[in-house]
Design goal:
The protein is of the alpha/beta class. It contains four helices and five strands.
C-alpha cells in the first residue's frame, strides 16, 4: 500500500514518537522512509558556504546521527534531508518530489485532547496542502 513515506521531523519528543510509527509502517510495507527536517527559515537566503549555515547543518546531522538513527533499527531504505525552509510548504514540496504515498507528522496533543483546532499551523497547512494522505501521530506517554 505504501511505497514511499515522508516523515516530517521536527527535532523533539513528539516527532521521535511519530518516527517510531513511521519506521513500523515502512517495515510493514517494505517502503522507503524519507526523513525531512526544516531548519530555521531565516537561513534560507545564506550562501551554501556561509559558516552559519554550515554550522546549523552540522548540528542537524549530529542530532540525526545521535538521536534519530538509533530509532531506525535495521531499516534499509531510509534517507535524511535537512534544509532551511518554511516547514509546511517544504514538506508538501518534498512529498511531491519523492511521490510520497503518506506523510507522517508528530503532534504534542494527547489523544483525548486532539482536535484539528489544536494542531499547530504547520500541521494544519500540511493537512490542507498535502499531495497525499497525512498521518497525524499524537504524543502518547
Amino acid at each position: 500500500m505504501f511505497d514511499r513515506i515522508l516523515m516530517a521531523l521536527k527535532f523533539g519528543l513528539a516527532s521521535e514518537f511519530a518516527l517510531v510509527k513511521g519506521v513500523e509502517l515502512a517495515k510493514a510495507h517494505e517502503a522507503e522512509l524519507h526523513i525531512f527536517h526544516a531548519m530555521d527559515y531565516t537561513l534560507k537566503d545564506l550562501a551554501e558556504g556561509d559558516p552559519r549555515l554550515i554550522e546549523v547543518k552540522k548540528e542537524a546531522q549530529n542530532y540525526y546521527e545521535a538521536k534519530i538513527k538509533p530509532l531506525l533499527s535495521d531499516l534499509k531504505k531510509v534517507s535524511f534531508k535537512c534544509m532551511p525552509a518554511d516547514p509546511a510548504l517544504e514538506v508538501c514540496k518534498q512529498a511531491i518530489q519523492i511521490n510520497a504515498d503518506l506523510i507522517v507528522l508528530g503532534c504534542h496533543q494527547l489523544p483525548e485532547k486532539m482536535c484539528l483546532g489544536r494542531v499547530d499551523y504547520i500541521g494544519i497547512t500540511i493537512l490542507e496542502k498535502a499531495p497525499c494522505p497525512v498521518m497525524l501521530v499524537p504524543l502518547c506517554e
